[in-house]
From TrEMBL:
It comes from Micromonas commoda (strain RCC299 / NOUM17 / CCMP2709) (Picoplanktonic green alga). GO terms for molecular function: zinc ion binding. InterPro entries: Znf_RING (IPR001841), Znf_RING/FYVE/PHD (IPR013083). This is RING-type domain-containing protein. Residues 6-61 form the RING-type domain.
Length: 213
């Protein structure tokens, strides 16, 4: 039996405010999983690509693209040199890779595994931590005395600032992410019509969306 409710906002699909999105990655005609276009746009508001938005499918984590007119497809993979890290990457917003975009938004404080001191790092080093308490598998230069590339973990005080939509699977933050999306969708639903228009007009310029800040 095909899904009749959105898996994110839990509303019943309809032709007005809960229009089912056609997912090109993991959805089939008889799929019991479905998401509405409004929720998918909220999921995809973390990055922009030209006139559209990019984000991850809440089920299979495939990167999706939502065009300005609401058409959903697998995200393009334009590669080039990131204008921030100068590495050959898949480029998203403004010629920057997703790591540099998130690093700019969430420059968290990390603990060095060698000297134990703290350092603010403008890169999503949480991606390399299997769990919140483990040190990551990738290195970054320690400027606190090690004078070497060391491993890091997010300090406890900043764990709540790790964006739920980007946390590793082992962090088990999927339910938290979906709950944040539901809260945002409910907030938008309470808006007056003119507020919704303003919300839509600036939508692609927002960066943090439904994440813990």
């Amino acid at each position: 039996m095909a899904a009749s409710d959105c898996a994110v906002c839990l509303e019943t699909f309809n032709d007005t405010d809960c229009v089912p999105a056609r997912l090109p990655c993991c959805q089939r005609e008889t799929s019991t999983f479905g998401v509405c276009l409004g929720c998918l746009e909220e999921i995809c508001n973390h990055y922009t690509v030209e006139a559209g938005r990019v984000g991850k499918c809440p089920r299979c984590r495939e990167r999706l693209y939502v065009s300005a007119d609401g058409v959903v497809s697998k995200a393009p993979q334009p590669r080039g040199k990131c204008r921030m890290c100068c590495q050959e990457r898949v480029l998203l917003d403004g010629g920057k890779c997703d790591a540099c975009i998130l690093g700019s938004q969430f420059a968290l404080t990390y603990e060095c595994d060698r000297c134990g001191r703290h350092q603010r790092i403008p890169h999503p080093m949480w991606r390399y931590q299997t769990t919140p308490g483990e040190f990551g598998t990738s290195t970054w230069a320690c400027h606190n005395g090690c004078d070497d590339y060391t491993r890091w973990r997010v300090i406890e005080a900043d764990l709540g600032r790790v964006p739920a939509h980007d946390a590793p699977e082992g962090w088990q933050m999927l339910d938290r992410w979906l709950e944040q999306l539901r809260e945002e969708r409910a907030r938008v639903a309470r808006m007056r019509p003119e507020e919704r228009r303003d919300h839509g007009a600036v939508f692609i310029h927002r960066r943090q969306g439904c994440v813990v800040s």
